[in-house]
Write a structure and sequence with these properties.
By secondary structure, the protein is mainly beta. It has a single domain (45-256), classed as Clam (outer membrane lipoprotein receptor (LolB), chain A). 12% of the residues lie in helices and 39% in strands. The chain has four helices and 13 strands. It has a 13-stranded mixed sheet. A hairpin with a 3-residue loop joins β4 and β5. The chain is globular and about 60 Å long. The two termini are 26 Å apart.
Length: 257
Amino acid sequence: MLVLIICGPLSGYCEGEAAKPLSDDTNTTEDAGNGAGGEIAPLVCSTLEKNGSVKSLSAAELKDYVRQVQQQYSSTKFLTAEFSQLSYLRSLDLSEASSGSVWFHNPGQLRWEYSLPEKQVFLVRDQEFELYQPIENQVIQQNLEEYFSSDIPVAFLLGLGELEESFIPESGCITSSEIVLVLRPRTEANDPRKVKELRMSVGAQSKFPTTVQVIDREENVTQIEFKSPDRTTPIQKDIFVLALPAGVDRQDLRKLH
Protein backbone atom coordinates (compact mmCIF):
# COMPACT_ATOMS: atom_id res chain seq x y z
CA MET A 1 0.00 0.00 0.00
CA LEU A 2 1.12 3.06 0.78
CA VAL A 3 3.21 1.00 0.48
CA LEU A 4 3.50 1.78 -0.34
CA ILE A 5 5.34 2.07 -3.56
CA ILE A 6 8.29 0.34 -2.32
CA CYS A 7 10.40 0.97 -5.31
CA GLY A 8 12.76 3.76 -4.63
CA PRO A 9 16.31 4.98 -4.88
CA LEU A 10 17.47 2.72 -2.06
CA SER A 11 14.75 0.22 -1.38
CA GLY A 12 15.75 -2.49 -3.85
CA TYR A 13 12.24 -3.93 -4.08
CA CYS A 14 12.12 -3.77 -7.84
CA GLU A 15 13.80 -6.14 -10.21
CA GLY A 16 15.60 -5.07 -13.34
CA GLU A 17 17.70 -2.07 -14.19
CA ALA A 18 15.72 0.34 -12.05
CA ALA A 19 17.07 -1.08 -8.81
CA LYS A 20 20.46 0.58 -8.88
CA PRO A 21 22.86 1.15 -5.99
CA LEU A 22 23.54 4.67 -4.88
CA SER A 23 26.21 6.59 -6.71
CA ASP A 24 28.87 8.45 -4.80
CA ASP A 25 27.09 11.78 -5.23
CA THR A 26 23.66 10.63 -4.06
CA ASN A 27 22.33 12.53 -1.06
CA THR A 28 22.00 10.63 2.19
CA THR A 29 19.59 11.75 4.88
CA GLU A 30 22.40 13.71 6.48
CA ASP A 31 23.08 15.60 3.27
CA ALA A 32 19.37 16.20 2.77
CA GLY A 33 19.00 17.81 6.18
CA ASN A 34 17.14 14.97 7.84
CA GLY A 35 19.69 14.09 10.49
CA ALA A 36 22.48 11.55 10.54
CA GLY A 37 22.29 8.48 8.37
CA GLY A 38 21.31 5.19 9.92
CA GLU A 39 18.23 3.23 10.89
CA ILE A 40 14.70 4.59 10.64
CA ALA A 41 12.82 4.70 13.93
CA PRO A 42 10.01 2.13 13.80
CA LEU A 43 6.38 3.12 14.02
CA VAL A 44 5.52 1.89 17.50
CA CYS A 45 2.93 2.78 20.08
CA SER A 46 5.43 4.54 22.33
CA THR A 47 5.94 7.20 19.67
CA LEU A 48 2.29 8.21 20.09
CA GLU A 49 2.61 9.20 23.73
CA LYS A 50 3.17 12.82 22.79
CA ASN A 51 -0.31 12.83 21.22
CA GLY A 52 -2.04 11.93 24.47
CA SER A 53 -3.28 8.81 26.19
CA VAL A 54 -2.40 5.59 24.34
CA LYS A 55 -4.68 2.55 24.40
CA SER A 56 -3.52 -0.88 23.25
CA LEU A 57 -5.87 -2.67 20.88
CA SER A 58 -7.36 -6.09 21.54
CA ALA A 59 -7.24 -8.79 18.87
CA ALA A 60 -10.86 -8.08 17.95
CA GLU A 61 -10.22 -4.33 17.75
CA LEU A 62 -7.15 -4.92 15.59
CA LYS A 63 -9.15 -6.95 13.08
CA ASP A 64 -11.89 -4.35 13.05
CA TYR A 65 -9.52 -1.44 12.41
CA VAL A 66 -7.71 -3.32 9.65
CA ARG A 67 -11.10 -3.95 8.05
CA GLN A 68 -11.98 -0.26 8.33
CA VAL A 69 -8.68 0.79 6.75
CA GLN A 70 -9.31 -1.61 3.86
CA GLN A 71 -12.83 -0.26 3.40
CA GLN A 72 -11.61 3.34 3.33
CA TYR A 73 -8.90 2.56 0.82
CA SER A 74 -11.16 0.44 -1.38
CA SER A 75 -13.77 3.20 -1.49
CA THR A 76 -11.18 5.78 -2.57
CA LYS A 77 -11.54 6.33 -6.30
CA PHE A 78 -9.01 9.14 -6.62
CA LEU A 79 -5.96 10.07 -4.57
CA THR A 80 -3.52 12.91 -5.12
CA ALA A 81 -0.84 13.60 -2.52
CA GLU A 82 2.69 14.74 -1.86
CA PHE A 83 4.96 12.21 -0.19
CA SER A 84 8.26 12.06 1.63
CA GLN A 85 10.20 8.81 1.71
CA LEU A 86 13.02 7.45 3.82
CA SER A 87 14.87 4.32 2.70
CA TYR A 88 17.33 2.40 4.85
CA LEU A 89 19.72 -0.25 3.53
CA ARG A 90 20.95 -2.31 6.48
CA SER A 91 23.88 -4.00 4.72
CA LEU A 92 25.51 -0.58 4.17
CA ASP A 93 23.94 1.16 7.18
CA LEU A 94 22.89 3.87 4.75
CA SER A 95 19.71 5.90 4.55
CA GLU A 96 18.36 8.28 1.96
CA ALA A 97 15.57 10.83 1.79
CA SER A 98 13.43 11.38 -1.28
CA SER A 99 10.15 13.11 -2.07
CA GLY A 100 7.63 13.69 -4.79
CA SER A 101 3.97 13.33 -5.78
CA VAL A 102 1.56 10.45 -6.27
CA TRP A 103 -1.65 10.07 -8.28
CA PHE A 104 -3.89 7.04 -7.93
CA HIS A 105 -7.06 6.07 -9.79
CA ASN A 106 -8.71 3.01 -8.27
CA PRO A 107 -8.28 0.35 -9.43
CA GLY A 108 -4.97 -0.23 -11.10
CA GLN A 109 -3.66 3.15 -12.26
CA LEU A 110 -0.77 4.78 -10.45
CA ARG A 111 1.76 7.52 -11.12
CA TRP A 112 4.54 7.75 -8.53
CA GLU A 113 6.86 10.63 -9.35
CA TYR A 114 10.07 11.45 -7.51
CA SER A 115 11.31 15.03 -7.67
CA LEU A 116 14.21 14.62 -5.23
CA PRO A 117 17.02 13.58 -5.13
CA GLU A 118 16.49 13.14 -8.88
CA LYS A 119 13.44 12.92 -11.08
CA GLN A 120 12.02 9.46 -11.76
CA VAL A 121 8.51 8.52 -12.82
CA PHE A 122 6.91 5.13 -12.07
CA LEU A 123 3.71 4.58 -14.04
CA VAL A 124 1.35 1.62 -13.69
CA ARG A 125 -1.71 0.92 -15.84
CA ASP A 126 -3.23 -2.01 -17.72
CA GLN A 127 -1.06 -4.47 -15.74
CA GLU A 128 2.07 -2.89 -17.20
CA PHE A 129 4.80 -0.84 -15.60
CA GLU A 130 6.93 1.98 -16.99
CA LEU A 131 9.91 3.65 -15.39
CA TYR A 132 11.13 6.92 -16.89
CA GLN A 133 14.56 8.17 -15.82
CA PRO A 134 15.27 11.57 -17.42
CA ILE A 135 18.87 11.64 -16.18
CA GLU A 136 19.48 8.38 -18.08
CA ASN A 137 17.27 9.45 -21.00
CA GLN A 138 15.55 6.08 -20.89
CA VAL A 139 12.20 4.45 -20.25
CA ILE A 140 11.81 0.82 -19.18
CA GLN A 141 8.60 -1.07 -19.93
CA GLN A 142 7.75 -4.30 -18.15
CA ASN A 143 4.83 -6.51 -17.18
CA LEU A 144 3.75 -5.54 -13.68
CA GLU A 145 3.91 -9.04 -12.20
CA GLU A 146 7.40 -9.55 -13.63
CA TYR A 147 8.78 -6.28 -12.34
CA PHE A 148 7.74 -6.10 -8.71
CA SER A 149 9.31 -8.66 -6.44
CA SER A 150 7.22 -7.54 -3.45
CA ASP A 151 3.72 -7.90 -4.78
CA ILE A 152 1.54 -7.70 -1.65
CA PRO A 153 1.96 -3.98 -0.84
CA VAL A 154 1.87 -3.07 -4.53
CA ALA A 155 -1.36 -5.01 -5.03
CA PHE A 156 -2.92 -3.18 -2.10
CA LEU A 157 -1.75 0.19 -3.38
CA LEU A 158 -3.28 -0.53 -6.77
CA GLY A 159 -6.59 -1.51 -5.23
CA LEU A 160 -6.11 -5.14 -6.26
CA GLY A 161 -5.27 -6.73 -2.91
CA GLU A 162 -6.88 -7.17 0.50
CA LEU A 163 -5.07 -6.47 3.77
CA GLU A 164 -7.09 -9.07 5.64
CA GLU A 165 -6.28 -11.75 3.11
CA SER A 166 -2.56 -11.02 2.95
CA PHE A 167 -1.66 -9.90 6.48
CA ILE A 168 -2.19 -10.98 10.08
CA PRO A 169 -2.71 -8.10 12.55
CA GLU A 170 -0.07 -8.49 15.25
CA SER A 171 -0.40 -5.45 17.51
CA GLY A 172 -1.66 -1.90 17.57
CA CYS A 173 -2.64 1.10 19.63
CA ILE A 174 -4.77 4.23 19.38
CA THR A 175 -4.81 7.82 20.60
CA SER A 176 -7.44 10.48 20.03
CA SER A 177 -5.89 11.31 16.65
CA GLU A 178 -3.86 8.35 15.43
CA ILE A 179 -3.81 4.55 15.15
CA VAL A 180 -0.69 2.41 14.69
CA LEU A 181 -1.13 -1.06 13.19
CA VAL A 182 1.58 -3.73 12.93
CA LEU A 183 0.91 -6.54 10.43
CA ARG A 184 2.83 -9.58 9.20
CA PRO A 185 2.32 -11.51 5.94
CA ARG A 186 0.24 -14.67 6.18
CA THR A 187 2.66 -16.62 4.00
CA GLU A 188 6.36 -17.05 4.61
CA ALA A 189 8.86 -16.54 1.80
CA ASN A 190 12.53 -17.36 1.42
CA ASP A 191 13.18 -14.37 -0.82
CA PRO A 192 14.86 -11.79 1.48
CA ARG A 193 13.27 -8.96 -0.50
CA LYS A 194 9.80 -10.10 0.50
CA VAL A 195 7.92 -8.20 3.17
CA LYS A 196 8.59 -9.21 6.76
CA GLU A 197 6.42 -6.59 8.41
CA LEU A 198 4.06 -3.78 7.48
CA ARG A 199 3.51 -0.93 9.91
CA MET A 200 1.10 1.90 9.30
CA SER A 201 -0.18 4.99 11.02
CA VAL A 202 -3.75 5.93 10.12
CA GLY A 203 -6.01 8.77 11.14
CA ALA A 204 -8.21 7.84 14.09
CA GLN A 205 -11.18 9.50 12.40
CA SER A 206 -10.43 9.04 8.70
CA LYS A 207 -9.06 5.47 8.98
CA PHE A 208 -6.83 6.40 6.05
CA PRO A 209 -3.06 5.76 6.09
CA THR A 210 -0.77 8.73 6.68
CA THR A 211 2.56 6.94 7.22
CA VAL A 212 3.63 3.46 6.19
CA GLN A 213 6.75 1.41 6.90
CA VAL A 214 7.69 -1.72 4.96
CA ILE A 215 10.40 -3.94 6.48
CA ASP A 216 11.85 -6.78 4.42
CA ARG A 217 13.57 -9.97 5.56
CA GLU A 218 17.00 -8.34 5.38
CA GLU A 219 15.74 -5.58 7.72
CA ASN A 220 15.80 -2.93 5.00
CA VAL A 221 13.15 -0.30 5.69
CA THR A 222 11.11 1.94 3.42
CA GLN A 223 8.97 4.60 5.09
CA ILE A 224 6.52 6.80 3.22
CA GLU A 225 4.53 9.69 4.66
CA PHE A 226 1.63 11.14 2.69
CA LYS A 227 1.00 14.87 2.90
CA SER A 228 -2.11 16.87 1.99
CA PRO A 229 -4.00 13.93 0.47
CA ASP A 230 -6.92 14.82 -1.82
CA ARG A 231 -9.41 11.97 -2.25
CA THR A 232 -12.21 13.90 -3.96
CA THR A 233 -10.81 15.68 -7.01
CA PRO A 234 -10.95 13.61 -10.23
CA ILE A 235 -7.61 13.03 -11.97
CA GLN A 236 -7.13 13.83 -15.64
CA LYS A 237 -6.47 10.74 -17.77
CA ASP A 238 -3.28 12.18 -19.27
CA ILE A 239 -1.62 11.98 -15.84
CA PHE A 240 -1.30 8.24 -16.50
CA VAL A 241 0.41 8.72 -19.86
CA LEU A 242 4.14 9.40 -20.08
CA ALA A 243 5.07 12.41 -22.18
CA LEU A 244 8.51 11.44 -23.46
CA PRO A 245 11.02 13.59 -25.35
CA ALA A 246 12.20 12.65 -28.81
CA GLY A 247 15.18 10.33 -28.84
CA VAL A 248 14.51 8.69 -25.48
CA ASP A 249 16.00 5.19 -25.17
CA ARG A 250 13.18 2.64 -24.89
CA GLN A 251 13.84 -0.72 -23.25
CA ASP A 252 10.82 -2.96 -23.77
CA LEU A 253 11.27 -6.00 -21.53
CA ARG A 254 7.71 -7.24 -22.06
CA LYS A 255 8.71 -9.18 -25.15
CA LEU A 256 11.20 -11.21 -23.09
CA HIS A 257 8.45 -12.94 -21.12
